[in-house]
Write a structure and sequence with these properties.
Elements (H helix, E strand, L loop, with lengths): L1 E2 L4 E2 L13 H4 L3 E9 L2 E3 L1 H14 L8 H15 L4 E8 L16 E8 L9 E5 L7 H4 L7 H12 L4 E3 L14 E5 L4 E4 L9 H9 L1 H5 L5 E4 L4 H5 L3 E6 L3 E8 L2 E2 L7 H16 L5 E3 L3
Parallel strand pairs: 7-8, 7-13, 10-11
Antiparallel strand pairs: 1-2, 1-6, 3-4, 3-5, 4-15, 5-6, 9-10, 9-12, 12-13, 13-14
């Protein structure tokens, strides 16, 4: 763990603590982001950091360091952890000092980071989703990756109660939005990759990378096009394929939404092809995408 409170990195779990008077703890005034560690490289760290800083600005949290220093700290903690496959997670808080509502009296922003070793076997099998009845965040907060994830947690629990993997949120106009911690995409009968617009939901780094990688499937004829726009529930359930996309999920085919089977109910070739492209990208993309960690 790295903490700007004690100004260093520790590998002792007993020291991996956050002060109770940190405003991220008692007021939820904090933002976070992540990056995947793959074979000793940090995948898409810079795109995640860009979103991290955008979230901090929206949350009115100042930076304890400039971007190059924060980036160096995050790379250094992965190096110190010796982790070669796992995830890096980092938080920016308005900081500790008191238990008031606003941090303005004691502005002391803090940065925390942890590295989590990947110990689970990957599962890319098809899943069931349900339509969420939990209220979606307003666009102001949905587009910011803050620590206020209670709606996301309740949405996930709602899905688990029904034997599903995730819930799908609809926006205030009834269009398909996102899952609790992943984006959603569809393949139409006309072989078009269709993804909901990002103006009311979190701008998923992995989803945006998929949009770039999918161009290869357009070139070889497996896709006829790529579109980002409004998606109705009817369009989504009538799609030949549906998938969940995220840095933890990667690309996971959806085989059933509520009571409706998607396609033939077994997943489809485009989701499989996109997963293959993403896995290859995570291992073989240039250093502008994959940052080597100096162990």
């Amino acid at each position: 763990m790295y903490s700007s409170i004690f100004g260093g990195i520790t590998t002792d779990p007993a020291v991996m603590v956050i002060p109770m008077d940190d405003h991220m703890v008692h007021r939820g005034h904090g933002v976070f982001d992540t990056a995947t560690v793959v074979d000793g490289f940090l995948y898409e760290l810079d795109s995640h950091l860009e979103r991290f800083l955008r979230s901090a600005k929206m949350a009115r949290i100042t930076l304890p360091f400039d971007l190059p220093i924060m980036r160096a700290i995050l790379i250094q903690i992965v190096s110190a952890s010796k982790c070669r496959n796992g995830s890096l997670r980092y938080w920016l808080s308005s900081g500790p000092g008191d238990f008031l509502l606003s941090p303005s009296c004691r502005e002391n922003p803090s940065l925390y980071a942890v590295v989590i070793q990947d110990q689970s076997l990957p599962n890319y099998g098809g899943v069931k989703v349900v339509t969420s009845t939990t209220q979606i965040k307003s666009p102001q907060f949905a587009t910011m990756k803050s620590v206020n994830y209670l709606p996301n947690v309740l949405s996930k629990m709602e899905a688990e109660d029904q034997g599903a993997f995730a819930s799908i949120w609809l926006d205030d106009e009834g269009f398909v939005a996102e899952g609790p911690n992943m984006n959603v995409a569809f393949i139409t009968e006309g072989k078009v990759l269709l993804m909901p617009r990002f103006d009311k939901i979190l701008s998923g780094c992995t989803a945006k990378r998929i949009l770039v990688l999918a161009e290869r499937l357009v070139k070889d004829g497996r896709l006829n096009g790529i579109k980002v726009g409004n998606v109705t529930v009817e369009e989504g359930k009538a799609a030949s394929e549906m998938m969940l996309i995220g840095s933890g999920t990667l690309v996971r085919p959806v085989i059933q939404w509520d009571e409706q089977l998607i396609g033939n109910g077994e997943g489809g070739p485009i989701a499989s092809a996109l997963l293959d492209l993403l896995l290859d990208d995570m291992k073989n993309s240039p250093t502008s995408i994959r940052i080597p960690v100096p162990y």
